[in-house]
Amino acid sequence: MDQYQPGKTEHISGGSPVSFQFAFQLIPLDVSTLESPLQFLCPPRFAGGKEANQIFVMTCAANGTGVNEGPSAISLETYPQWNAPGHLTTIYTSDTQFFAAFWVVSSTTLLVEVQNTDRFRTVFPTNGLWKVTLNTQSGGPASAQQLTRGLFPDGWPASRDGTLYAVSEQGRDLASNTPTSQLLVGSLTGGAPTPVVSASGENTLVEVGWTTI
After folding, report:
1. pTM attached to this predicted model
2. Torsion angle of alpha carbons 92, 27, 62, 35, nearest 10°?
3. How many domains does the chain have?
4. Could you read off the pLDDT of 101-147 as tens digits, one per residue?
């Protein structure tokens, strides 16, 4: 790649023993709307869609002094064919939330981790795991539902069938002054997650993935 050219599609080809071609498009990001000169754009995060010609792109704005409060956006890049430029469509945005991570559960469902921070260690009620449902029928705006408050996944949060999610909680037992952790599982349709296993002391629980569900 010789020079940054907004909208230009680059191709990288690999040879033997496995031949492949990877296409991506440089996305121009407008920083002129940022409120403070201290704000900067986070490195974009990418995730493949359930369709072979789709790539999801997450962008956000942060503050070099530890203030993360948005804006954030998730866009969908669709390629009519791999040797042609893609079509970028913004599908979900927030002016006040900081998107820390996201996962593609299905062609219509995303999970987004919201983690706003400030200099005063404020507990933001909107921090947690959110479910974003895409309106693929009419092309209207996506809808969002908060699944957890202050609880976040450690690994891939969604079950293989796209019906459940898992988050972990780390704490401390005040009586014994020992660390505690527990793993919680909830339904993607809503409702509070349920603890399924807990540990204390030197044992720490984190989810590492789903097996058959």
Report:
1. 0.75
2. -90
3. 2
4. 999 998 889 999 999 988 888 889 999 999 999 886 666 778 999 99
